Amino acid sequence: MHVLLSGIVGSTAYGLAHAGSDLDRLGLFAAPTVAFHGLHRPAESHVTTGPDRTLHEAAKWCRLALGGNPTATELVWLPDELYETRTPLGEELIGLRQSFLSAPAARNSYLGYAGQQFRKLTARDRTDSSGRARAAKHARHLVRLVHQGVTLHETGRIEIRLPDPERVRALGERYADRPEEAAALLADAEARFDRPGVLPAAPDERPAEAWLRRVRTAHLPAA
Fold it and tell me: In degrees, to the nearest 5, what angle opens at C-alpha 154 toward C-alphas 150 and 160?
């Protein structure tokens, strides 16, 4: 397994980490090209805990990113200091990141995930400290997803490091106590997504296809 690109993601990347936060890592790797020639395809993902790390095979990562998956896509938008592995092929992929974006995927993914967090928030039992803490976490995720999604729609860029983490934390605490107030945040985000944005109607698959072919060529056995 050849790791092409990896880095620290999650709360640390967003600027929301606290003393008890986990350190999450995400990356992508290239399976040996000959592994695709047999009866069984190689594993598309490797997930470990302690440390928490998810690695996706290059083709799977491309499919996730072309579909607008926020968790996968953030790998190519990290601040430079958060990368732990950055090979030439990984560097190429960062250079192609705009081609993976599209307006429908951004709306469906970011608003969809934010809506999931809202439903979890409103359904959470907050009568004990554990439930209250989980509710605040759902609320922080909701606020973060709304901010990142709207920013992407309006600027064409994914902003990983939040500009005002303290505001996100404060809103998380507020919505944990009054979940119904988060509905206005979602409604405003939907209204902003209804306005024209800067993203194309569909992603451009051609750069990803060409990049994957270079990955497969690079990982053929030596003659």
Answer: 55
**Measured distance CA(19)–CA(222) in Å, rounded:** 47
Q: What angle do CA 46, 47, 52 make, to 5 degrees?
A: 140
Tell me which residue of 209, 22, 193 sits closest to 109, measured CA to CA: 193
Q: Secondary structure of 187-206 in the HEC alphabet?
A: HHHHHHHHCCCCCCCCCCHH
Query: Alpha carbon of 75 to those of 24, 36, 96: distances in Å?
Result: 12, 25, 12
Alpha helices by DSSP H, listed for the chain, are 11-14, 58-66, 70-73, 88-95, 103-106, 112-123, 129-155, 165-177, 182-194, 205-218
Count of residues in the chain: 223
Which pLDDT score is estimated for 1? 76
If 0-12 CB within 10 Å is exposed, 13-18 middle and 19+ buried, where does residue 117 land? buried
Tell me 108's DSSP state: I
Closest CA to 123 of 73, 172, 176: 176
Residue with tokens 């996730």: 64
pLDDT band at 186 (very low <50, low <70, confident <90, very high): very high
Tens of pLDDT, residues 78-125: 999 999 999 999 999 999 999 999 999 999 999 999 999 999 999 888
pTM exceeds cut of 0.85: yes
Give the distance, in angstroms, between the CA of residue 147 and the centroid of all CA atoms in the same chain: 13
The SS3 assignment for 23 reads coil
